[in-house]
Design goal:
The complex is a heterodimer of chains A (186) and B (140). By secondary structure, chain A is mostly helical. Chain A contains nine helices and no strands. In chain A, 37% of the residues are buried. The chains are: A mainly alpha (186), B mainly alpha (140). At the A-B interface, helix 2, helix 3, helix 6 and helix 7 of A face helix 1 and helix 2 of B.
Chain lengths: 186, 140
């Protein structure tokens, strides 16, 4: 079981003052979630490690620009998201992604997804996650990994709130379908 | 039963040692004041090696420049007053102009002055033989 401190307990101010211990705590808190997010988007171990490293370096350089310390997590994921987009572009996949990100399907209200995954479903869950379009996968990962709100996800990804909502809806719908198929195999 | 978060993070748990190494490197890089030290050292060395030995020279030169600047300011501030004091009145200027015109008219209209002031026309040079030269014209 992973134990992580709340955002309020994170020593952002101390890190801003240059404390190495504070930076260690901050980076340790987010290193695995950031890596997971990056890996599930770019699908490359070394590239994901590079994304984490570049995110840390950028965060250390620009922490003074962060006004609200409570938003450190979403701010950090925003940097990582931009790095992932840059990787995507580097691999000439940007055109398809841009179309995906630009698409704004109709907005649908949807309740929270309280997923609990059985051990035998884990592989299938990851498989389905990998099959989702990049934009939907990104939204779902941010929701799963850090439980960011829709507004925070919109800030991180630079998308409209309505777009994020609809992406979340379609992604959850696809996951539910998978789980139902698992529970009630035809 | 696990949450999606647990499934996702545990799937990548094996990469933690590499992430730890990255974190340590970045923290070490970020928190060492490596960028500031050289600048401070350069400034300190510049002060110690260049400015400190020349401090009296620089002070003297500064004093001279200051004095020159002050004198320049004083002179420039008094110059307009001096010019104003030495400038003649309009009546004097008009009288001088009238006198000047009168003298010019005199010079133009007097023929004697013309003859006196006109330059003599040079005679053309005619070469002569030695025998043709009169003895009276030879200097004794």
């Amino acid at each position: 079981m992973l134990v992580v401190p709340d955002c309020e307990q994170l020593p952002v101010a101390a890190a801003r003052a240059g404390s190495p211990d504070a930076w260690n705590i901050l980076f340790q808190r987010y290193q695995l979630p950031l890596y997971t997010y990056a890996f599930e988007l770019v699908r490359d171990e070394q590239a994901s490690l590079d994304v984490v490293q570049e995110t840390f370096i950028n965060a250390a350089r620009h922490l003074r620009g962060l006004r609200d310390d409570a938003k450190f997590g979403s701010w950090l994921f925003g940097i990582a998201h931009q790095k992932c987009i840059q990787r995507w572009r580097k691999h000439a996949r940007d055109e398809a992604l841009r179309q995906e990100f630009a698409a704004t399907p109709p907005e649908v209200d949807d309740g929270p997804l309280d997923l609990l995954i059985q051990h035998e479903q884990e592989a299938e869950f990851m498989n389905l996650l990998g099959k989702l379009p990049g934009a939907q996968r990104s939204v779902l990962l941010l929701h799963f990994i850090e439980e960011f709100s829709l507004e925070e996800i919109a800030e991180i990804t630079g998308a409209q709130l309505g777009t994020v909502k609809s992406r979340m809806h379609y992604a959850k719908k696809a996951l539910r379908k998978l789980l139902e198929n698992h529970e009630n195999p035809a | 039963m696990k949450t999606p978060r647990e499934v996702l993070l545990q799937r990548h748990q094996s990469v933690t040692p590499r992430l730890d190494a990255i974190r340590r490197n970045v923290v070490a890089d970020v928190t060492t004041p490596r960028d500031r030290e050289p600048q401070q050292a350069i400034v300190a060395r510049f002060l110690r090696e260049f400015l400190l030995p020349l401090r009296w020279h620089l002070a003297g030169m500064s004093a001279l420049w200051l004095l020159a600047a002050l004198l320049n300011v004083d002179r420039s501030s008094t110059a307009p007053q001096t010019a104003k004091a030495s400038s003649p009145s309009p009546q004097v200027l008009a009288a001088a102009l009238f006198e000047n015109r009168r003298q010019l008219a005199e010079m133009i209209n007097s023929p004697a002055d013309d003859a006196a002031t006109s330059t003599p026309v040079p005679q053309p040079f005619i070469p002569r033989r030695r025998g043709a030269i009169q003895p009276s014209s030879v200097a004794v």
